[in-house]
Amino acid sequence: MSAFKAMVIDKTDAGQNVGIREFNEADLMDGDVTVRVSHSTLNYKDGLALTGKAPVVRRFPMIPGVDLAGTVEASSNPDFKPGDAVVLNGWGLGETHLGAYAEKVRVKGDWLIPLPEGLSPQQAMAVGTAGYTAMLCLMALERHGLRPERGPAVVTGAVGGVGSVAVALLAKAGWHVIASTGRPEEADYLKSLGASEIIERSELTGPAKPLAKERWAAGVDTVGSTTLANVLAMTRYGGAVAACGLAGGMDLPGTVAPFILRNVSLLGVDSVMAPKALRIEAWSRIARELDHEKLAAMTSTIPLDGVMEAGQEIVAGRIRGRVVVEIG
Description:
Layout: E1 3-12, E2 15-24, E3 33-41, H1 44-51, E4 67-75, E5 85-89, E6 104-107, E7 113-114, H2 121-143, E8 153-155, H3 161-172, E9 177-181, H4 187-193, E10 197-200, E11 216-221, H5 225-233, E12 235-243, H6 257-261, E13 265-268, H7 276-289, H8 292-297, E14 299-303, H9 307-315, E15 322-326
Parallel strand pairs: 8-9, 8-11, 9-10, 11-12, 12-13, 14-15
Antiparallel strand pairs: 1-2, 3-4, 3-6, 3-15, 4-5, 5-7
């Protein structure tokens, strides 16, 4: 069987060893579709996997990378044929199943969706799990009945991948967007995406009160921990916060006061195991509603051999927006 180029994480007594090497196609995992990968992306989770800062990788050796865009090379799945352009997000890719930082993957066809009409593979990976998660958050808020006329929407971690796309999507949908960031020098960048106000991260990082002054009707939180507790305490009566990240920690040091005194709702958003119908809906809306010029403005591109350095940067909070990884 043929060999191909891949980034591989091996476990050693000293920790992890990460490097690009030849990988044999015979060693790919089970699946009914083989995809020739053209592009991937870099998410916070990818950074954690690459650096070993969190136990994202569950088997070794592992090819990291949780997102891919590419072309079907071989398929025994009736929904896909050679030549089809496809996208994959999540489903344990890069965690329990050999992932996307490779020229080939073999996966279950049920994990794939067709490349959305109106997006190139590069644009799809500029969106990636981060942008797709941002759309799932917007959809969750809408299903809760929230609309822009109810008041502002706050986005935490706004300079990051999920945050950047969330700002752009919410602004396009008509929301007055308040962007929270620890990098005030990026204010012009956030305003270019559609943010109406910029607030310092420090406003949301102190110990959370049970209730605070009502400031917003909706929120997209990528941080968790004290930040999320403060966002909930400042949410208006009947509002909701879509929580999708834990960059600040997995704990939630708040109280039940926002829920039982202000009828606030906390909406959990998962992108890894989302049903196929929901994925297709989210990606279709992204193709229609996300401004391609704003997407390009928040995106940089790196080769596969630049991923390790970029992974260290994203974990350190020094990456702005989205990073596309060219594979093929």
